[in-house]
Design goal:
Elements lengths: L2 H12 L3 E5 L2 E4 H17 L7 E5 L4 H12 L3 E4 L6 H11 L1 E7 L3 H8 L8 E5 L9 E4 H6 L16 E6 L9 E5 H15 L6 E4 L6 H4 L1 H7 L3 E4 L5 H10 L4 E4 L1 H8 L14 E4 L6 H11 L2 E7 L6 E4 L11 H8 L4 E2 L4 E5 L14 E6 L11 H7 E2 L2 E10 L5 E6 L4 E3 L2 E3 L1 H9 L4 E11 L3 E10 L7 H9 L10 E4 L13 H12 L1
Length: about 525
């Protein structure tokens, strides 16, 4: 199955229905289809063909939605760009992907100009969105004017295979230069169907795109929501008060947000005056989440909660904390214990937790191993990085680098990333466990735990903490708080207080930046 089928299916049943709410724009499925076909014909007129790469640098918007479907319509590869990257980083990605066309918001004009001027890329055309003047850069066109002049008639798409590449997502580069993760039409379509089944998505749902659409924490919903004729609501910038207002006004029923976003929402004063009666389920994904935050989310939104875990390499979902039937009769406290876990395997994946020798760990919730996965949602590899692909995929199994335990019911709980584990005095300390304890303290808004060089212990456990507005807590108080709840060697040996923690472009706490900063201090 290929991506163009999804839009055709939606148009066959829901062409008169409202498809997208984006600011003041309210677009029906018929209008969305016309715009997608105009854009795909425009791409062809610009010389794009099957297998060519088209990049987009844009905030969440109906234009992002159109690009996902229009590129697929002609068999091109869409490369969503993280607009928070530097010109040098953007230039590397554009050069590596060999993108020929770029869709860009005028908001990022300065970065794009710096990215292209004096740097080598294969870009030939730029489609600019916004109301400003079109920059004189390459062959530049104004997006709306260009698609209005393009034909709305659907052209037969090339003889696509479901093994054709649909998307190219570049990793954040935390372990070196960015790698392009290849996702095929099969990966995307199969994941979309699996998500519809797992999350029971229907044409009655309203999804709000809050997490960035250049990241798979949200992008997967582009296809699941469209497939069933549900409604898309766009949020271009994460402003908690604005998100709450739109959720209430548009009667949002389902969404997925990164834990840092959810943490900000539940600590926003306006949330007490917001009506969430339409919300049936809220998902968290993209990063680990503390059980204490899960409790607050469930209490605040008064709806079902599902924790998700996945990777760019897996389209993304690998687990969901949906309760199996035999767990529904448990007490509220016991049900929460499962809800707060990373979750059971997603319907579209086979998952194991294994030791170094490849054998499975005991399903006792104690023995730690690495998560490995296989299935039709798993990438076939990295863009022109054969060696990296061979390192990650062995005998058909993708090695995730995530360390976890698995219980007797098959529910997985991640304890840490391999690279985030701290070894202090010969003992393994999992940073997530320590962070979860810190989040139990009423004064803590955000926390990141890292290992820093130590002459005695090899590594020492350090916490970097952001306090809630109006709250106070001392270093000794938080260290003692941890020692009362976990083994003393796991407790931080030092705590620094900061006004904010570094974040990746998708909004996750960026531990590598913290580690690098502290290691530089030691030099």
């Amino acid at each position: 199955m290929i991506i163009p089928f999804i839009l055709e299916k939606a148009l066959s049943l829901y062409e008169k229905k409202e498809a997208v709410i984006c600011g003041e724009n309210r677009i029906s499925y018929r209008e969305l289809g016309d715009r997608v076909y105009r854009l795909s014909n425009l791409f062809k007129n610009m010389g794009a063909k099957r297998g060519d790469c088209i990049a987009i640098c844009h905030q969440n918007c109906h234009i992002f939605l159109e690009a996902y479907f229009a590129a697929a319509q002609i068999g091109a590869i869409l490369n969503p760009l993280n607009f928070r990257l530097s010109p040098k980083e953007l230039s590397f990605i554009l050069n590596d992907s060999e993108a020929k066309i770029l869709i860009a918001s005028e908001k990022f004009k300065d970065n794009i100009e710096k990215c292209i001027k004096g740097r080598k890329t294969k870009l030939s055309h730029i489609l600019w969105t916004g109301k400003g003047e079109v920059p004189e850069l390459l062959s530049s066109l104004e997006y709306e004017r260009a698609i209005k002049e393009s034909s709305p008639h659907i052209s037969s798409y090339p003889d696509l295979s479901d093994e054709d590449i649909a998307h190219l997502y570049y990793t954040s580069g935390t372990t070196g230069r960015p790698k392009g993760v290849v996702l095929t039409h099969k990966n995307v379509c199969f994941h979309a169907l699996c998500a519809i089944a797992e999350l029971k998505i229907t044409d009655q749902d309203v999804w709000i795109h809050v997490a960035p659409m250049f990241h798979l924490a949200d992008a997967w919903a582009t296809f699941s929501i469209t497939w069933v004729g549900a409604r898309h609501v766009m949020i271009g910038e994460f402003i908690p008060e604005r998100v709450l207002e739109v959720m209430e006004r548009e009667k949002v029923t389902i969404t997925n947000m990164i834990p840092t976003m959810l943490n900000m929402l539940v600590n926003t004063k306006e949330i007490e005056r917001t009506d969430f009666s339409s919300l049936r389920v809220i998902l968290s994904g993209g990063a680990p989440i503390a059980p204490e935050l899960v409790k607050k989310i469930m209490k605040t939104f008064c709806c079902d909660y599902i924790q998700t875990y996945g990777m760019t390499e897996t389209s993304p979902y690998l687990t969901v904390s949906i309760l199996k039937d035999n767990l529904l009769a448990l007490s509220e406290e016991e049900r929460f214990r499962f809800k707060a876990k990373t979750g059971r395997p997603f319907i579209g994946v086979l998952l194991k937790v294994v030791r170094e020798d490849g054998s499975e760990v005991e399903h006792n919730g104690k023995e730690v191993g690495e998560i490995i996965v296989k299935g039709d949602i798993v990438t076939r590899g990295y863009w022109r990085r054969d060696e990296e692909t061979r390192k990650a995929i062995k005998d058909g199994w993708l090695y995730t680098g995530d360390m976890a335990v698995v219980d007797s019911e098959g529910y997985v709980d991640i304890v840490d990333r391999k690279k985030d584990m701290i070894i202090t005095g010969g003992e393994n300390v999992y940073s997530i466990e320590v962070e979860n304890v810190l989040y139990e303290h009423p004064a803590v808004l955000e926390a990141a735990v890292i290992g820093v060089p130590d002459p005695k212990w090899g590594e020492a456990v350090k916490a970097v903490v952001v306090l809630k507005e109006g709250y106070k807590a001392s270093e000794d108080e938080l260290i003692d708080f941890c020692k009362q709840r976990i083994a003393r060697y796991k407790a931080p040996k030092s705590i620094d207080f900061v006004s904010e923690l570094p974040k990746t472009g998708s909004g996750k706490i960026f531990k590598k930046a913290l580690r690098d900063a502290y290691r530089k201090r030691e030099v």
